[in-house]
Amino acid sequence: MDKNGYLLEVEDLWVKVESKQVLRGINLRIKKGEIHIIFGPNGSGKTSLLGTIMGLPQYRIIKGEIKFKGESIKNMPSFERARLGIGLTFQHPPSIKGARLENLLKVMGIEEQRIKNLAKRLSLLEHLPREINRGFSGGEVKRSEVLQVYLQQPELVLLDEPESGVDLENIVLISSVIGELLEKNKPIIKRKKSAIVITHTGYILDYLHADKGHVMLNGEIVCSGGPEDVFDKIKKCGYEQCASCLTSPKEK
Amino acid sequence: MNSETIPEGEKKRLEKVGYDTSGKLSRSASFLMSDNRTLLSEKKEKKLEILSTELAVEKYPWVKDLMFKLVSKDKDDYTRLAASSPPRGFFLRVLPGAKINIPVQSCFFIKTKRLSQVVHNIIVAEPESEVHIITGCTTASYVKQGSHIGITEFYVRENATLTYTMLHDWAPEVVVYPRSSALVEKNGVFISNYIALTRVKEINSYPEAHVKDGGIARFYSIIYAQDESFFDIGAATFLEEKGARGEIINRVVSSGGRVVSRGHILGAAKDTKGHMECSGLLLNKKGMIHAIPELKGIFPETELSHEAAVGKIADEEINYLMTRGIDKDTAVSLIVRGFLDTKIKGLPPQLQKLIAGIIEKSSLGGRI
């Protein structure tokens, strides 16, 4: 943790994927125990931001800094960031011929009984011996992501649309497991885990009670505020209104 | 178990190819050949018979009629050499109706440098019987060169089930030429698994199955080709009568070796069905995988399909696994070992576990 109590500090972050600029001067600070929600239309850079924090190699940092617990991680490979305490649930994870879900979890050093207990709760017991995401339904893919990241127990959880493509019953299940991971039953002062959550539907807001909301447009964070307020405004006016805020400092 | 002529230090080599020398694992029968000499032929199960081929020919004159019936003497130089050699190897017969769930084990061990081992096995699963065979082939740790020529003819009678799991762990300068063929009679089931994960000079293996009315033949080849190894592997299945089914699965990884991965399925009768998969992973630029899947239909109501894919592991897959806190080498190893550890339909769990264990324990050349 840095001296100001921030678990994550993103400073003036500019990122390219191949020749395309995907992030433009992002600034974001997250304290221990905080949950931040990021809204934004498709292609606004939300997934790129999470991927860059996680250290996926396609995201090339042109300028800026990422600090985790006060230390720069921008030159660290993803597996070292994961070991430091960052975990990511992918929006569209690849299916992997060969690698079996249970073998991955074992290689991660997770105790067998813990794997089985959570897999049972997430209705994934039969999926453990299967190849990761091969032939999984959309909902099963999301539950598998939550299973892996929950067992990883990261301090900073990056959730990329964990509820998209999931039926209502399973949204409740996924949200309750995520809530448990993020220690939502504890008072904020006692929580050790933080999160950045990308959501389109906002369903997950009912379960997570986030602390801050941000809107991303064209690779920038264009406004921030209370998550419910931000989401209500988007629902009412759409992202167009956010875009107009950019050019209208009064409203902003 | 009498295996005293295998030096203590070499017994580990046998264990690596699934041959239990301790007597601790359940085996219904054992056959062990060292160079060209039978060291052991014993059974614990009354309803089967295991003998050296030499003794079997003496005891049962009809065994001779089964030799070179499915594999032609004149197929190639190796079959001609086997035909001109004394009949070594083993004869196994499972009596009608006998269901032997505990595996039979056999092992062909080369202990003399530059030796040419020539064997001819005859295996008969009589009607309604079931048997599962593990055959391990290996060399002593100090043997680097040699050759193994193995003829095996399988007779799977009506409603019988025979699984044959062959594990090879040869030395870098050994050449290997198995020549096998199976007759699968009405409603019979034949499953042949071939696993080779260590460095070898050359393995050339193309077993066949002639499948009759309602019968099933499945071939699985699991190959990890290391530097300077050459494999020409695969199988052919001839679906000759109504309702016959066949499957050929080749899972090949090259870390520098060259592999020709073949498959041929012939649909020659009504309601026959065959599927083939030739999958290959290239781990670097030194290796080569040439997939040659062939389907031939000569009857309209046959249904044959194949999938073939050769390439590298996608970066996206490795990057995904690395986000779980595992380094690149571990991610590659997880994918490769899992890719090789394919689930074999119809194989008893004990044997599936044996194969998984061998893949798990294999150093895969120490590369991953």
Proportion of residues in β-strands of chain B: over 45%
Radius of gyration of chain A: 18 Å
Number of strands of chain A: 10
Helix-strand string of chain B: HEEEHHHEEEEEEEEEEEEEEEEEHHH
Number of DSSP strands of chain B? 20
Can you give the mean pLDDT of chain B? Answer: 94
Oligomer: heterodimer
In this structure, how is the largest beta sheet of chain B organized?
Answer: 10 strands, mixed
Please bin the fraction of helical residues of chain A.
25-40%
C-alpha end-to-end distance of chain B: 36 Å
Mean pLDDT of chain A: 91
What share of the residues of chain B lie within helices?
Answer: 10-25%
- Overall form of chain B: globular
Q: State Rg of chain B.
A: 20 Å
**Shape label of chain A:** globular
Reported for the largest beta sheet of chain A, the result is: 6 strands, mixed
Q: Which parts of chain B are unreliable, with pLDDT below 50 for 5 consecutive residues or more?
A: none
* Helix/sheet category of chain A: alpha/beta
How are the strands ordered across the major sheet of chain A?
6-7-8-3-9-10
Give the count of structural domains of chain B.
Answer: 2
Written overview of the protein:
The complex is a heterodimer of chains A (252) and B (368). By secondary structure, chain A is an alpha/beta fold. Chain A has a single domain (6-93, 153-247), classed as P-loop containing nucleotide triphosphate hydrolases (Rossmann fold), CATH 3.40.50. Helix content of chain A is 35%, strand content 26%. Chain A contains eight helices and ten strands. Chain A has helices at residues 46-54, 78-84, 101-107, 112-121, 138-152, 168-181, 205-208, 227-247, and strands at residues 6-17, 20-31, 35-39, 60-68, 71-72, 86-89, 156-160, 194-198, 212-217, 220-225. In chain A, the strands form two sheets. Chain A has a six-stranded mixed sheet, with helices on both faces. Mean pLDDT of chain A is 91; it is low at 248-252. Chain B has 368 residues and is an alpha/beta fold. Chain B has two domains: 8-314; 315-363, no CATH class. Chain B has helices at residues 11-16, 53-59, 61-66, 77-83, 315-322, 328-340, 349-361; strands spanning 29-34, 37-43, 48-52, 90-94, 104-110, 115-125, 130-139, 145-156, 161-169, 173-184, 189-196, 202-204, 208-211, 216-225, 230-239, 245-254, 258-267, 272-282, 288-297, 302-311. A ten-stranded mixed sheet of chain B has the order 2-1-5-7-9-11-14-16-18-20. In chain B, strands 3, 4, 6, 8, 10, 12, 13, 15, 17 and 19 form a ten-stranded mixed sheet that branches. In chain B, strand 1 (29-34) and strand 2 form a beta hairpin. The mean pLDDT of chain B is 94. Classes of the chains: A alpha/beta (252), B alpha/beta (368). The interface between A and B is medium-sized, with 27 and 24 residues.
